[in-house]
Design a protein that fits this description.
This protein is of the alpha+beta class. 48% of the residues lie in helices and 23% in strands. It has two domains: 211 residues, no CATH class; 102 residues, Jelly Rolls. Strands 5, 6, 8, 9 and 11 form a five-stranded antiparallel β-sheet that branches. A four-stranded antiparallel β-sheet has the order 4-12-7-10, with no helix packed on it. A three-stranded parallel β-sheet has the order 2-1-3.
């Protein structure tokens, strides 16, 4: 699990948590109390980490599918590729549109076989040389576009990995410090870095990490039950990053949100819209701290949202009532 490995690496590197009293004073009174924590067990048992890891994997698979699909269509010309992409965005394609999608896939596949065959010809005719040049030109342009897509996807994947890891590390480190203070430990070390000794606080850390929130954080923000003239399509709430399920809307439709600082204070809140092809349609929210607003969209289709948040939020999608 790539996300798990990165998170574990960061946490192990930060395994020395804190001293809770001055070393000189401790030396005079007693030997320091040392706790140890099994970070592998923490990561395996931390429910929010596991949920975030699944979100990350789903996000990664989505990007891989997009790249594989584009690679399979590399020998379509620009007009054919645009037609294919437009057809794929149709919410409820007709039988004719479905047939056309399959036709375009078949065209790309046939040209792949044709290119392979022409490349194997030892002494091609002038006509074969011309056709080979045409297909090579399509391939080179598509490969250049694919390289850009792959670079963009890598950057996006790395950024998502970092954001999720940083967010979870912050929570885990805060809980480690809280447990250490509560149990009056002077040091907390990674268990696999200790050959002998130390009191294992792994279960106490996991219990605190997985405990239901209390106080203000427990008051989860709510989406409105109704908005006059609009019908609710989907809604989400929480205080962590989320890649939503796909939803289909007519026109117009809108995104409503409410966000505010959580227990750790003001954080970031960003909503990005992606279409069915995985292309970024737009960023409708990018705020820090308390904010309530909405964004009306005027193109029907199938979309999903990427919610990047380090504070509490409620987000809902609505379509105009008939």
């Amino acid at each position: 699990m790539q996300l798990a490995k990165q998170a574990a690496a960061i946490l192990i590197a930060c395994a020395l948590i804190a001293t809770l009293a001055a070393p000189s004073a401790l030396a005079q009174e007693r030997a320091p109390r040392v706790g140890v924590v099994d970070m592998s067990k923490v990561l395996d048992g931390y429910k929010e980490f596991q949920a975030s890891d699944q979100q990350y994997k789903a996000f990664l698979r989505e990007r891989q599918v997009q790249l594989a699909e584009r690679a399979s269509l590399r020998l379509l010309n620009p007009q054919e590729l645009k037609e294919y992409q437009n057809l794929k965005q149709v919410t409820a394609p007709s039988d004719e549109q479905k047939r056309r999608i399959e036709e375009l896939k078949a065209v790309a596949d046939t040209r792949e076989k044709e290119l392979t065959g022409l490349q194997a010809v030892t002494t091609p005719t002038e006509e074969q040389q011309k056709r080979l040049a045409e297909l090579n030109d399509l391939q080179e342009k598509s490969n250049a576009e694919l390289a850009q897509m792959e670079e963009s996807a890598r950057a996006e994947i790395n950024q998502r990995n970092k954001e999720l890891s940083d967010q979870l590390n912050k929570k885990i480190e805060a809980v480690l410090a809280a447990v250490a203070k509560d149990k009056r430990f002077d040091l907390v070390l990674a268990k696999d870095a200790v050959l002998y000794g130390g009191l294992d606080i792994t279960d106490a850390v996991l219990a605190k990490l997985n405990a239901p929130p209390t106080g203000k954080v427990a008051e989860q923000l709510r989406n409105p039950d109704s908005l006059q003239g609009w019908q609710k399509v989907a809604s989400w709430s929480g205080e962590a990053m989320k890649s939503t399920d796909a939803f289909t809307v007519g026109t117009p439709w809108k995104i409503w949100w409410n966000t505010e600082p959580g227990e750790s204070g003001p954080g970031n809140f960003v909503i990005s819209i992606y279409n069915q092809a995985g292309e970024l349609v737009g960023i409708v929210a990018n705020v820090i701290g308390q904010n309530t607003d909405e964004s009306v969209q005027h193109k029907s289709g199938t979309y999903h949202l990427e919610i990047d948040a380090t504070q509490r939020y409620a987000v809902s999608v609505w379509t105009k009532s008939p």
